[in-house]
Structures are given as structure tokens and as C-alpha cells.
Amino acid sequence: MPNTPITRHKHQPQPDLATERAPSKRRASWRTRLTQLGIIVAALLTVSAILMAGFFLRHRNQPEVIGVSFSPYQAERYGMDWRAAYVAVLDELQFKHLRLPAYWDQIEPQPDQYNFAEVDWMLDEAAKRNAKVKLVIGQKLIRVPECYYPSWLDRNNADLVAERANKMLAVVVERYKDHPALEAWQLENEFLLHSFGECPTQNLTTQALRRELATVRLIDQTTPIMLTQSNQWGWPIIGPMTEYYGFSMYRTVWNGTFGYYVYPQRGIYNWWKAAIVEYLHPRTAVTIHELQAEAWGPRGNEHISHEEAQKSMSLTKLQDNILYARETNIKRFDLWGAEWWYAMKLQGHTEYWNYISSLEK
């Protein structure tokens, strides 16, 4: 038998089972993570639905109350008689809830020398008609430039501003706390929103707001207080909180980067947000302190044409904004734009005025 050479085979490598299992482990890990994410999302949606249902049930039988903001300064920018415009808002539009400013530069033109003539007149006219007023007080109020500091005050000295602001607030609250028209104080306007208004940001702090709130509470323990924020920015989670918290709601606006654009969220977003706020702060009721009902163009409304204004506030847009507010299930909202409706009326564009007049308030 011939000799057959023995072939010696090299050792064949065994398959690496750990390597083969790695992709399946990764797939299993991703499936686990997606399952966990799905559980978290489902839990958040369930909690949100419960909170929103609770909000709806708490408020469903409350009457809808539509109020309005009015600024003498804004009315004067249209060249109109602001008193005539204000009386028309009361008598022709039949508003029974008003949001009015007490501008610091007007009421304290010189240190410790106060002039309340215009604020007195507005509240007295409201009282004659059994209308109620939220009086906006503080450093940062309604309408640009928002911070109406007196000319004698160094607005860049935060300590001095705080000292003088609290002194002014004490005088204002003492004067009006028993006025028959007073319904609530609005302390500051979107005070912690630093991106809007011509205000030194060092003056607008949570600490400053808490101090002002304490000043108002010390003098008036019974009148409700409202704080406010923009609906696009921030969550009032850590406070301070008061009896009312207001969201502003604007839909179609203009800025230098994008031109005209529409905020994408619908009213259900603010329903969700309001439900969370009231759950976290059960003694606070959410309101809409500014609902857009006027144009927002590239310049002040007193400087743009009716055609330009239509791009951000047509009658159809105005009607849709009212529906938007109702989608939130927030039963109280103040319209923003009374001075503009009156100006449009004087120019022959009466559709806004007539529509607002038709609303039940």
C-alpha cells in the first residue's frame, strides 16, 4: 500500500458568537428604548388629557366674558380725541370689563408730585356705567415702549428704580383700592419678557416682581391681582403666582427677519398650557389678557394703510381669532385693538367696529 502523505490542516477559526449576537442585541436595545419612549409619550398624553378634561369641566358652566384694553397714549397716536374714543368703547361697544393703564410718567411727572386726573376720569366714567376695571400698574405697562419711566428718573439705576417704583405703587394702590370700578390689579405687563419693550432688563427681575407684589399686598389684601406673560414664551412654574394669570395671544405678526408669519399653534395648545398651570397652582385662574384684534405690521398701526393692515388683521382674521380664543376653553379674554377699531371707523372702515359691537360681552 503506497504511503499516503498525511495532510496537516491548519486550525479552522471558530465563529465568534458574541460578534454575531451584537446586531441582534442592538436591535433588541432599540426596541426596548422605543417601547419605553412610547410608554412615556402615552403617559404624558394620558395625563394631559386628564388635566385638560378637568380644566374643561371646571370652567364649562362659567359665562364667557369679553373685555378690552384701552390706552390714551395709543389713541393719541392716531390724532384722535382719546376721551371720545374711550366713551365710544363704553357706550357704543358696551364693554363692561376694561383693562386700563396708570402710566408712571403721567401720574408722577415730578418726584412725589402726583397727577391722577386722567386715571380718575377713566375709572369714574367706567363706574357711571357699572363697568369694571383691571388697572395696570408698575414699570412695564401696555403699548410700546411699555416702560414709561418719568424723565426725572435714572432708568439705568436698578436699585433706584425699584425703590421709586415701590413707592409709586404704594400711592396708587392706596388711592384706588376702594374705587367702585376697580375689579383687579394687573401688576406689570409681561414683566419677565425681556425681548419686547424698551426697558433696561436689570430692572425686570423675579426679585423685583416679588418685592412689588409684596408692596401691593401690604396695602390691599382683598383686591385680586393678575400677572401676565406672552403665550409664546415661558412657563409660570416657579412663580410668583396670584389670583389670575394672563396669556397674550397673537396670531399674525410681522418682524424684520421673516416679514409676516402666523404662529402655528391652535387654541388647544393654550388649553393644555392653562390646564397645567391651574393644576400646579390651584388658586390661580388663567385668563387671556391680550387677544390680537388689530393689525401688526412693519410700523406702528397709525403709520400703515388699511391695505397693509389687512395682511395681519382682516375681518376674517378677527373672527378667527375669536374662535381661536374659544378653542382654549379659557372663558375670559380681553381684546387688543380698541383704538385701532375706532381709527378705522373714523376712516370709513366700520366692519371691525360693527363686528365687535355684535359680540356678547
Strand-residue fraction? 15-25%
Largest sheet: number of strands, sense, barrel closure: 8 strands, parallel, barrel
Helix tally equals 12
N→C terminal distance: 117 Å
Task: List low-pLDDT spans.
Answer: 1-10
The helix/strand order is HEHHEHHEHEHEEEEHEHHEHH
Shape: globular
Mean pLDDT: 93
- Count the E strands: 10
Keywords:
eight-stranded parallel beta barrel; 361 residues; single chain; alpha/beta; disordered N terminus
Topology diagram in text:
Elements: H1 17-59, E1 65-69, H2 72-77, H3 82-91, E2 97-101, H4 104-107, H5 117-128, E3 132-137, H6 158-176, E4 182-187, H7 206-219, E5 225-230, E6 244-249, E7 252-255, E8 259-262, H8 267-280, E9 285-292, H9 306-309, H10 315-327, E10 332-336, H11 338-346, H12 351-358
Parallel strand pairs: 1-2, 1-10, 2-3, 3-4, 4-5, 5-6, 6-9, 9-10
Antiparallel strand pairs: 7-8
Helix pairs in contact: 1-8, 6-7
Give an overview in words.
With 361 residues, this protein is of the alpha/beta class. Helices cover 43% and strands 15% of the residues. It contains 12 helices and 10 strands. An 8-stranded parallel barrel has the order 1-2-3-4-5-6-9-10, surrounded by 5 helices. It has a two-stranded antiparallel ribbon with strand order 7-8. Strand 7 and strand 8 form a beta hairpin. The longest helix is centred in the first third of the chain and has 43 residues. It is globular and about 80 Å long. The N terminus is likely disordered.
